[in-house]
Amino acid sequence: MSKYNDKFRQQRLGDSRWIEKYAMGDNDFNDEDSHNESHRSGDNQDWEGFKFVSFGSGSSGNCSFLGNENGGVLIDAGIDPEHVYRDLAANGIKLSKVRGILLTHDHADHIRYAYKIVRENKHMRIYCTPRLMGGLMRHHNVSRRIKDYQVSIFKEIPFFLAGMKITAFDTSHDAIDNMGFSFEAGDKTFVVATDMGTITARAEHYMSLANYLMIESNYDLSLLTMGKYPEYLKARVKSEKGHLDNEVAAAFVASHYHPGMEWVFLCHLSNDNNSPDIALTAMYNALEGKGLSVGDGSNAPNERDKDIQVYALPRYDTSTWFVL
Prior knowledge:
Helix content is 31%, strand content 22%. By secondary structure, the chain is of the alpha/beta class. It has one domain (50-315): 4-Layer Sandwich (Metallo-beta-lactamase, Chain A), CATH 3.60.15.10. The longest helix is centred in the last third of the chain and has 13 residues, at 276-288. The protein has an eight-stranded mixed beta sheet with strand order 7-8-9-10-11-12-14-13. Strands 6-5-4-3-2-1-15 form a seven-stranded mixed beta sheet. The protein has twelve helices and 15 strands.
C-alpha cells in the first residue's frame, strides 16, 4: 500500500485505527497505559474487581456503569444524564474516569442521551459499529456531529478500554446491528446481553463464559398473552427479534451454570408483562432445580455463601452499587 493510501486509510479509520492495530497483533496501540500491558501479560496484582451499577433498566431507559480502579464505561445512554452524574458522584466516580459509552443497539431507550453526554464530557467517545451509528443517525433526531465522537468497533474484534478487554458479539433484536459485550479484567468476565428475542450461538458462547452475567428477563408469557398489548405487539415481543421470556432466560442460566458463575443480573423487565418477583421466581426455580443454592444479592451473612447470587435490576431507580 502506498504512503498516500495508508495516510488516507488512517484518516478514514480515525480513532478506531488502534482497534485494528490490535486485531493485527500490534500491541503498540493507543488507549490506556501500563494497565493494559499488565492485563495482556496476565499480571493481575492490581486488579480490585469490577464495579457495577445500573441507573435504570427497561423500556423507559437503560444505562449502567462498569469499571474498576482504572476507570470505566457507560453501557447505553437512555437515562437522564443528571441522574447518572449524581449517582456516579455519590459512589465516588468522577466523570473524568468514565472513558466512553458503549451502545448495544439504536433504540431510543438505549441511545436517547448519548450525544448530550459526550457533548458535555468531551473526553468521552461513543463506541459502536459503523452500521449501528448509521442506524442511529437515520432513525433519530440527533445532530450529525455525534459522529465526531464515534470510535468504530467491530463484533468479535477485542479492544481495550479502562483496563478491560472488551468484545462485542451478535445478538438478535429488531434494531440495527445489535450486540452484547464481554468485559475481561483480572481473571474475571462480565457479560452484558440485553434486548434479544433468542440467544444466538455467538451470544451463547460469550454468555456461557461469564462470571457475572447481565441477562434480559423481559416478560412472563402468561401475562403477555392475557395482557392489554395489541396482537401485533405481542407477536413482536415473542419473536426471535423481540425480547427474552423469563423461562427462557432461566433455563439458559441453569443449563450453562458453572462454579465460576457467581452473579446473575436480570435486566429490561417489562412494566406491563412482568415483575421482579415473577422474574426472580423463574430464575430461582430453574437454578434450585439443578440443586444450586441461590442468594438474593443482599450480602447478608446467610446469603453470602450461596452457589450463585441473583438480582433484578430496578426499572426506574439506581441499583445497589456492586463491587464484584
